[in-house]
Design a protein that fits this description.
Helix content: 40-55%
Radius of gyration: 18 Å
Distance between the termini: 23 Å
Number of domains: 1
Number of strands: 12
Largest sheet: 8 strands, parallel, barrel
Mean pLDDT: 95
Low-confidence stretches: none
Shape: globular
Number of helices: 9
Structural class: alpha/beta
Bound molecules: fe (ii) ion
Amino acid sequence: MNASLGHGIGLRTPHYPTVLEGAFDVDWFEVISENFMLRGGRPLAVLEKACEQAPVALHGVSMSIGSTDPVRHDYLRDLRSLIDRFDPAIVSDHLCWGSVGGHYAHDLLPLPYTEEALRLIVARVELVQERLGRRILLENVSSYLTFEHSTMPEWEFLAAIAERADCGILLDVNNVFVSAHNHHFDPSWYLAALPAARVGQIHLAGHSNRGTHLLDTHDGPVIDAVWGLYREAVERFGRVPTLVEWDDSIPPFDQLRDEAERARCIESEVLDGITRTA
Ligand SMILES: [Fe+2]
């Protein structure tokens, strides 16, 4: 799946001028789909410019694939027209729910990992992929609570969704690290359980240590332990399009670029080492 995309960054408003000037040196961008579901204006002009110069991925935050609310056909229609217009390299959203009874939490809420939830989500992913005319990737979210009636671990649930619905996985390595800490599991178990052929993208981001738990804040650099887990992910999944997210206290473009470059260096080190020992 798009193994050649390389290492990119999440494109946010402060860096629009950099894209408009064409003065960037990253391989690709990811944008938040909902920010571009508009009829016109500056964001669409920026997206047009970005797409002229580099591959772009559309990353959604409000599909609410795990909700029991009806699938929103107007949302899928708007997303489809964005896809048709910009031909993104990847289309993704989150394995979570965010609405109930038409009320939106504006948050990426964790699911109970049960066979019942699995069946519901697989059917919804199939419907979404049919409406969008393409495969989507679903991302593991960070979480701070679990459901007592879950019958399987998150990694087993995610793998089963991907296999049964024939969708891809956007593996957020930072989210695995955060959830592993909060729920006391070994993050290596998570990576080991995922079907390698389904992992189509990796996210990296910073988080905050709040003492009692880790919080997925996206407001700082990737910490060393998450870089270590990324190294492990490359060992297991090989060359996967990788993207650095930074959503709060957003730094200058060059600092984000340097994070993407660090990911590139780690990937090269791991893959060169594997080649030498093969
Ligand atoms: Fe992410």
